[in-house]
Amino acid sequence: MITLIVEFNETIGFWQFIVKEDDQIIHFRPGFRTHEHAEQVGDGWIRDNLGGIPLEEDEEG
Questions:
Q1: pLDDT by residue (tens digit) across 5-32?
Q2: Three-state SS for 59?
Q3: What SS3 string covers 4-57?
Q4: Among positive and negative, which fits the CA dihedral 33, 5, 28, 36?
Q5: Are 5 and 18 in contact (CB under 8 A)?
Q6: Percentage of residues in the chain with pLDDT exceeding 90?
């Protein structure tokens, strides 16, 4: 299962996202000013690189 985790990194003071497949980190990117922006870029990375779609879009379509 592919999971997108968006969290605030206290050390750098910005939001980051982590993409995991099962328990393995397959992509990580820090440096976002908002949770929403990190989530959008993370969703886009999953779509572009893994061919996945967010569950919300899957349920609508």
A1: 999 999 999 999 999 999 999 999 999 9
A2: helix
A3: EEEEEECCCCEEEEEEEECCEEEEEEEEECCHHHHHHHHHHHHHHHHCCCCHHH
A4: negative
A5: yes
A6: 79
